[in-house]
TrEMBL record:
Annotated organism of origin: Ureibacillus chungkukjangi
Topological category with respect to the lipid bilayer: Multi-pass membrane protein
Catalysed reaction equations from the record: Cd(2+)(in) + ATP + H2O = Cd(2+)(out) + ADP + phosphate + H(+)
CDD domains according to UniProt: HMA, P-type_ATPase_Cd-like
Gene Ontology CC, one term: plasma membrane
Protein name: Cd(2+)-exporting ATPase
Location relative to the cell: Cell membrane
UniProt cross-references to NCBIfam families, sorted A to Z: ATPase-IB1_Cu, ATPase-IB2_Cd, ATPase-IB_hvy, ATPase_P-type
Broad enzyme group: translocase
GO molecular function: ATP binding; ATP hydrolysis activity; metal ion binding; P-type cadmium transporter activity
Amino acid sequence: MSEKQVKLSEEEMKTYRVQGFTCTNCAAIFENNVKDLPGVEDAKVNFGASKVYVKGNATIEELEKAGAFENLKIRDEKEQKAEREPFWKQKENIKVYISAVLLVISWFLGEQYGEEHILPTIGYAASILIGGYSLFIKGLKNLSRLKFDMNTLMTIAIIGAAIIGEWGEGATVVILFAISEALERYSMDKARQSIESLMDIAPKEALIRRGKEEMMIHVDDIQVNDIMIVKPGQKLAMDGIVIKGTSTLNQAAITGESVPVTKTIDDEVFAGTLNEEGLLEVKVTKRVEDTTLSKIIHLVEEAQAERAPSQAFVDKFAKYYTPAIVILAFLIAVIPPLFGGDWSQWIYQGLAVLVVGCPCALVVSTPVAVVTAIGNAAKNGVLIKGGIHLEEAGHLKAIAFDKTGTLTKGIPAVTDVITYGGNEDELMIVTAAIEKGSQHPLASAIIRKAEENGLNMNGVSVEEFQSITGKGVKAKVNNQMYYVGSPNLFEELHKTIESNIKENITRMQTEGKTVMVLGTEKEILSLIAVADEMRETSKEVINKLNHIGIETVMLTGDNERTAKAIGKQVGVSDIQADLLPEDKLNFVKKLREKHQSVAMVGDGVNDAPALAAASVGVAMGGAGTDTALETADIALMSDDLSKLPYTIKLSRKALMIIKQNITFSLAIKLLALVLVMPGWLTLWIAIFADMGATLIVTLNSLRLLRVKE
């Protein structure tokens, strides 16, 4: 489906939240049922986010009727969610309690009067009917359509057990299956709660000032340009720009950064962040559905609907596997008796194979892991846009970094000032006054430095300002002609540069700094070194990545000498300098040929082609730029690389858990099937193998919630 189609269909589609999904299979059945409703043109179910998108007209009652087979509850997306009923009080679980009580009573009666007595048989039959009636309805419907899934297999097995007189085991299977389904529902809900908790981050109303009046307004009714008043200790309900006040904001909900950030006039602030100490007035810049938080939630929900490659394999496998199990069970039940075996014993073995054959654990092995990992990442300020990108990140062998704005802050700053004649402050005032007329990016670094040192340039008169193309500028200050520019300019002016000054220039250039010289026609007065500052976390992040066996490459348009100095400082394993944007793209392609799985990390604007060419594009600072959110496969919401090793750790763990789940699900089935040979497989063992595998696979996936930095 192209992006255009998705956008178009989502605009036309109405979104509902669904409660009660237990498995991907049920979600698929529900989707087909909704599509069959009169008035519905199309429907799409997102299992991970528990949502259904409906194109056309359908009431909530009709949708609930379509989901009656699974007792699904539907509500409009905009509606506040009802209080969650405690797990043990849920209606579906009450029948399990009644059924279990009847089973225990029947077992006691069986011990008292013997298994063949009418009383325990009636008790077991009642237990089977109460605990399994919804299962039978689904199973018999499927059977009439010759559709074999988990419910069909279970229904055949339980009815078969009753026919051959194994009432007690039939009732036990019903209860264990019901418990297994309830626990599966519980664990899926647990996995989804990470997204639900994101939705509850931002308040649903805010204090708005319109004219002279202040009032509490629901977020849906807040307009762009409204003035929002945020008191200390309150969370922001909308995105906006600070127009009055200064405060520190805890942005952990959006960016995953635990250290609060200072915000003042003209700074951008986000919905869901916590105002810690000052009173802020914020001009609202986006409607509620366009806030960064809404975007995160939407992207995460979409990501959870994306199928991971391993899930596509599992779904394909399950399609052929279930009918194969039915045929195998039939052969086990029929062939041995034809050669003199006991019919009752081999039918029983066949039924047990049906139960063991349920593909529950296998089908649930990937989606639970993907949903859990993506939810955990979102809470830690990392947006992974789908199971495929999660798996790709787990395979990474090399990561290419754009230098400016990624490994460095992207803002040049003055690092050294060396003077050879006159007062340092006076010379700095002269340099800054001259540079005020220059457009060069390094000029802003010098002006900023002068302002930081509290130097006043206002009284300085600059005359005859002239740019010397590619080399610097000259101007008259207090009737003295000064030159500011590269060392090359002064080599031309003075023919030679004194050896001690030349040594200082070479030393600073080797450190990766750009050196600017201030002087007159006769002498050099000062050297000013400017460098793009390294991010505090870059060195540590690169070190961690090298440590886990990932090749790190720095890509930059800088000259070789500067690039080498910075690359050495940060610790990357390879440095590529003098690159144009298309060179970066070609280098990423080359790197992919060598390693298959390669990530590119950039700021998402000028790096878009290289981000797209990498197997995983990682953009930084997603909280502030829509480009980063749109172009990248993974977005780090904070303007900081420290989340990158965590993302790789989480992805590798998710890959490992998915592999463990698939291997374990199949191994348990094989082991149980081997027990058929000596005739040791019982319905008890079969249901425990199936239920146990599903539970263990789900709990194993939930371990991903515990992955921290």
